[in-house]
Amino acid sequence: MGNRYRAAERGRGLTYAELLHLTGRNSHSSYEHRKQPLLSRAKFTKRVIRHFNLAFLLLAAGLGIGVLGYHCFGELNWIDSLLNASMILGGMGPVDPLHSSAAKIFASCYALFSGLAFIGIASLIVAPFAHRILHRFNLDKE
Asked: How confident is the model over 78-95, as pLDDT tens digits?
């Protein structure tokens, strides 16, 4: 196996699957298999931080889409656009009335998108904790 590792360092002779095997990464999931031991607290903390970072990026992207849309289609100033996008993304509803048809169509599409984004972002935050609990139950069962 040492020769194969040296070949990987030189960048030739290994397939992607072999490289994943050597680095200990599973190509199908970032979570450990049920037969693997529970992650250490440090690795679990890194996983949680990665999930929070991804959730924050998705939230920022969704908010940016809303702010631009309300500013361009709804002809609102930047602060009012931010307020409306934040309220829709948070599930509270719009603040300012919209007058043009294009703004109303954007607002309805953004509201549908925001509902799905809310579910997805919440799932990203809960996933590492739910996996750890279920993994621990499975280890206790065996």
From this structure: 999 999 999 999 889 889
